[in-house]
Amino acid sequence: MDDESLDVESKIETPDLSCPKCGGLLPAQLGEIECVLCDAHVKVDHPPTRRAWVAEKIRCKTCSSLLLVGVDKRPANLQCSSCESQFIVTPHIPKAEVQCPSCDRKMRLSKRPGSRQISCPACSISFKVSF
Ligand SMILES: [Zn+2]
Ligand SMILES: [Zn+2]
Ligand SMILES: [Zn+2]
Question: Which ligand is located closest to the Cα atom of residue 41?
Fold first, then answer.
C-alpha cells in the first residue's frame, strides 16, 4: 500500500468477466471496457455492482469519518464532509494467489488480465503468470 496517497481502494468486487471474443479475463470495470488481450470493445453492466458502489461507505484516511460514496462508478472523486480532504475511490483490484514453480512460495498478485513476468522474492527465479 502506498502511504503517500489518500486514495482508497473500493471493497466492492466486480464480477469476473470474460471477453466474448477471445474468452480472456476483462479488467475489473464496468461500462466500456477494452479487452487488453484482443482489443475488442465490450460493453459490460452489472446493476447489483452499481448499487453496491452507490451504497459503499469509505473511511476518510485523514479524519476517519465514515463517508457514503454515493457514486455509481469507480474511480470516484470524493470530498470528506468533515475535514474536506479530497481523494479518489479507486476500483477494486482482485487478488489471486500464485505459487513459485521452484520453491513453492505463495504470493498474492493483483489479478490483471494478460501475462506478466514475476520474480520470486524467496528464490529470485522469474516465471510468467497469466490470467
Ligand atoms: Zn478479448
Ligand atoms: Zn476527513
Ligand atoms: Zn521461489
Answer: 1
